[in-house]
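Good morning N.,

You mentioned wanting to compare the apo and holo forms, so I went ahead and generated the holo version with nicotinamide-adenine-dinucleotide. This is what I fed in:
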Amino acid sequence: MTDVRAKQAVFPPAKLFIDGEFVDAADGATLDAINPTDGRVLWRAPCAGVEDVERAVRAARDAFDQSKWPTMSAASRARIVRRFGELVWERREAIALVETLNNGKLYRDALTDDVGAAAGALQYFASWGDKLCGETLPVRGDFLTYTLREPLGVVAAIVPWNFPTSLAAWKIGPALVAGNTVVLKPSELTPITALMLAECARDAGVPPGVFNVVPGLGSVAGDALARHPSVDLVAFTGSPRTARALMRASSESNLKKLSLELGGKSPQIVLADADLDAAAEAITWGIFSNKGEVCSAGSRVIAHRSIYHSLVERVAERASKIRVGDPRDNETQMGPLVSLRQLESALGFVTRAIDAGARLVVGGERDTQGAHGEGFFLRPTVFADVREGSELEQEEVFGPVLACLAVDDEDAAIRVANGVRYGLAAGVWTKDTAKAHALARRIRAGVVWLNTYDRFDTAAPFGGYKESGWGRDLSSHAFDTYTQSKCVWTAL
Ligand code: NAD
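and this is what came out, ligand included:
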C-alpha cells in the first residue's frame, strides 16, 4: 500500500451543502475539526445553526413534494445512486486520507471498512432500486386490492464519528433509492467527509435538494432536525442517551418515525473446547480494531474457567505487541482515540475498574512516547477478573478496553451475556457446532457470530435488540425503515 504520510489532504469547500449548492452558514459559524494524532486543528468546518437546518429541510421537503425524485422510475433513481457510489469509490483515497487525519483510524481501514464500504453500500442499495414492490392481496369480496411501497418523505440522517462515511451511506443509500430526500448531519467531531460525499452526489447527478449536508452541533443542528415538523424520519446511529433525546423530540413535535442503531457491550463466549488461538486472535481484533471505537466491539470475554487463564494470557500477549502510532503509517496497528474527551472517558473507566478490584493485565495508560506526546493514544488494555455487574462489565467504553471474566457453565455464560441493557452483537467459540447454534438462539442480540467475529456484508442485516436500538441497516431489511406501505382497494 502507498505510504500516505507525505500526501497532502485535499479538503471540500468549507461550506454547507443545501439545495445542490455549497453555501455559507447563515451566521458564518465554524467548528474546529481536530487531528487526534497531534491534537491540532485540522480544518475549520462550517457549523449549521437552526436557520441553516430550516433551509436544508425546506430544500429537501420541496424536492420531495415538487421534484420528480420520488416519482421518477426506480431504475433511473438507482442509476444515479449507483453513479454516486462509483464516484465515492473513484475518490476513495482522498476521502480516506481526510478520514484518517480527522478520526485517527488506520488509513488502510479507512480505505476499505469505511470509504470502500460506503461506496459498496451505495451500489448495493442501487441494485435494489427496481426490485422493491408491493403485493396483490387475496381479500374477501369483489375487489382488486394491492399495496404500494412508498417513500416516507424527508429523512434526517444523524450519524456518529466512528465510521463517518459508511454509516452515512448505510442510510443515504436505501433512503434515496426508495425515493426519499435526505438531510445528513455528520458528527461535530468528523464533519469533513460528509461534504466530500456531497461533492460525489452533486457530480453523480443527484438533483438539487434531494441530498443536503449540514455539519453542526448535536444539541443545535441535530435537535433542530429532530424537532422539525417537515422531517418524516430520523435515521440515527449513536448513543442511547441521544436516542432518548430524539424520542422526546419526536413525541414533542410530529411523532416522526425513528430508526435507532445504538451502543453495545457485546460478549465473546468461549467454551472449554474452543480453538483458543483462533478465539484469542479474533477477540484481540474484535476489541482493538478501530481503537475499540466500534459499536459491535467484543468488549466482554466470558470464558469457561478451565481455559480462562490460558485465553487471557494469549489475548494479553497479542495486545501488548500491538503497534500504536500514526494511523497513516502502514506498520501501525492502532491509531489515537478520536478526541481528548474520548481518551479521558476511557481512562476514567480504567481507574474505576481498578478501584472496583478488576485485575489490569496489560495497558491502561496513555501512550505519550516520542511523537505521540500530544496525540490521544491509549495502550490496548485488558482487564481480567472483572466482576459481573460492575461498571466495566455493564457499560460501553467505546475504546480499546477489554473486560474478561470466568464462568462455570453455559447457563452462567448466557446469564452474563444477556445481563446487560445492550443487545447488539455476540460471539460464540466452540468446536461443537450444534451447541453453537443452540447458544445463538439463547443470546439476546441482533447479530451472533459463531467461531468468527465482526463480519459485515451489505447483504447481511445489522442492528440491535434491547437498548441497542431498533430497525435494521444493510440488506433488503433496510428498506423496511425507508418505505411505508399503502393499501389500495378497487371495486370490480
Ligand atoms: P452521540 O449520540 O453523541 O452522537 C451521534 C450523533 O448524534 C452526532 O451527529 C451528534 O451530533 C448527534 N447528536 C448529539 N446530541 C443530539 C441531540 N440532542 N439531538 C440530535 N442529534 C444529536 O454518539 P457518538 O459519541 O457520536 O457515537 C458513539 C455511539 O454511537 C456509541 O454508543 C456507539 O456504540 C454508537 N454506534 C452505534 C452503531 C450501530 O450501528 N449500532 C455504530 C456506530 C456507533
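The longest strand covers residues 143-151.

Happy to go through it together on a call whenever suits you.

Best,
F.
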